[in-house]
Amino acid sequence: MQPEVPLHVYRSRAMNTEIEVIWESQALRKSRALEKIADKWFHAVEQRFSRFMPDSELSYLNRQSGSLTLISGAMAEVLSLAEIFHIQTEGMFSPFVYDALHAAGYSQSYDIVKQADAVTSDSSCSGAYSMTLHSGMKAVQLQDGTHLDLGGIVKGWSAEKMADKLRLAYGVRRGLVNAGGDVQVWGGSSAQEPWRIGIASPWHPEEELAMVSLRDGAVATSSSWGRRWNHAKHGVQHHLIDPRTMRPGSSDVIQCSIAGDSLISCEIWAKVVCLFGLERGLALLQTKCPRMEALIVSETGDLHLLRRHPQEKERWETEHIDFIHEKAN
C-alpha cells in the first residue's frame, strides 16, 4: 500500500471573509503556483462583485441602473444563476436586496458595521425582480432605480469554481475549498477517510454544534445570528433580507446547514430555509432538492435533521437530534 500524500494548506482573506484552500500536496513549486492562482482568483472575484468597492464591476453596473450595460462573462454567469434560483426558490432568493441592506444599516463591510450603531438610510426598497439579461450579447438592463447585491450567491460560486479549477484544470485528486464556512470538497481527506466539516453553533461560534462527513460534495450554513448589528432606529438587525417585506427575516429558523453536490445550491437553499421557516423550508427541500440533506436549528433551540436514507452510514455527527425528517422515496 502506497503512503498517503500529505495535504497542503493555504489561507488568505478576501470578500470580507476567511479563505482556506487545501489540496493533496504537489511538488513545492507547483503548490506555490497553486497558492498564487487561488489568491488571484478570490481577490479578482472581490474586485468584480463587491458592493463596497466603488470601482468594482457590480458598483459600475448599479450606477448604470436603467441603461443597457455590457458585462463580463463572469457577471453574466452569476446573473444567469441568480435568475434560475429566483424561480426555483419561488422568489425567496433575490439579488435585489441592495437597498434593503442599506436601509437596515448594512451599507459598509460587516467589520465596520458591527463596531458602530448603523444609521437609517433613506433608500426606498422594492422586492420586485427587475432585470433583463441578454446572455448572448453579455449585457443586462436593471430597472431604473434598482440595484444588485450578489453577496448571497458569489461566495459559494467562487469557492465551487475554484474547486473545479483545481480538480479539472490542475489534476488535484483531493481537496477542499472553504469560503467563510461554505465548503466544497472532493476525493476525501485521504483514500480511506472523508472530509469532516464542523458546523458552528449559532449562539457560540467558537463551539461546534455538529460535524458532517463528505468525500465529495458541499456544505453551506446560513444563520440570522451570524451577522447582526445594532440599528439606531430599528434595533438589532441581520443580513438575511426577506424579499416579501424587504426587511431582515423573522422566521422560526435561526440557522440552516445544507449538504449536497453543489456549493452554489447549498448556499442559496440554506438562506432560503432560514427565510421561509421550518415547515415551508422542509417541504421545498423535500420536493425540489432530492439530493440535499439539512441540519436546522429552530428559534426554540430544537435541532431538526432532514436526511435522505436512514440505512446509510450516518453523515451527521452531533450530541442529539430532536426531530428527524426522512426524505420521501
TrEMBL record:
Presence of the UniProt keyword Magnesium in the record: yes
Keyword Mitochondrion appears in the UniProt entry: no
Molecular function per GO: transferase activity
Top-rank lineage group of the source organism: Bacteria
Cofactor(s), by name: Mg(2+)
Keywords noted in UniProt: FAD, Flavoprotein, Magnesium, Metal-binding, Transferase
Enzyme Commission identifier(s): 2.7.1.180
Catalytic activity: L-threonyl-[protein] + FAD = FMN-L-threonyl-[protein] + AMP + H(+)
Assigned protein family: Belongs to the ApbE family.
Stated name of the protein: FAD:protein FMN transferase
Originating organism: Brevibacillus choshinensis
